[in-house]
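Supplementary Methods S3. Input chains for the assembly prediction are listed below.
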Amino acid sequence: EIVLTQSPGTLSLSPGERATLSCRASLSVSNNYLAWYQQKPGQAPRLLIYGASSRATGIPDRFSGSGSGTDFTLTISRLEPEDFAVYYCQQYVTSGKTFGQGTKVDIK
Amino acid sequence: QVQLVESGGGVVKTGGSLRLSCAASGFTFSGYYMSWIRQAPGKGLEWVSYISNSGDIIYYADSVKGRFTMSRDNAKNSLYLQMNSLRAEDTAVYYCARENWSLDYWGQGTLVTVSS
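Predicted structure tokens for the full assembly:
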């Protein structure tokens, strides 16, 4: 099983600032089969990024993903008020499609 | 537009059973793998199981293997999760999601509470 470790656990920032979220895998994620999801309270998760760097339909270009192998990053270039949420990474290389434990981005 | 609507959640006693359903619309259901994912109260996401588009390939997380059974009825555009021998740690919101390698569409979830 591939274990995903996200850091930091919580990121306290102000609107307009840049957010950098990390996701580290215990084994290499081949073909960059890594996705990022956003979840707001009381809502289902929403797909942001797939294939490590491709934005899903309708996702603003302030969201970008990068990385390969075992180290991946989600960057939000300038935080909007609606971006304060919890973010999860997920690998879909193996049959056991594991998630990271999440990073909460809250308002400073 | 793609819609996934879960149902069947509720309160059940430890050791009991429950069957969740997910009604799909807005896309060719028989063309996609599907997954169940759960989220315990205040916790992160846990992938539970997935099923191939034809239903002949099914995988389960170790935490539910032997207790949960995932199935689908392509004629009814429906997905199911039969949950037996339920434990307190199965308490969670259960989401169905469409697989397009990643999980590109999610339902709103249904809450399962297992209590003694």
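Chain B touches chain A through 21 residues (CB under 8 Å). Chain B has a mean pLDDT of 97.
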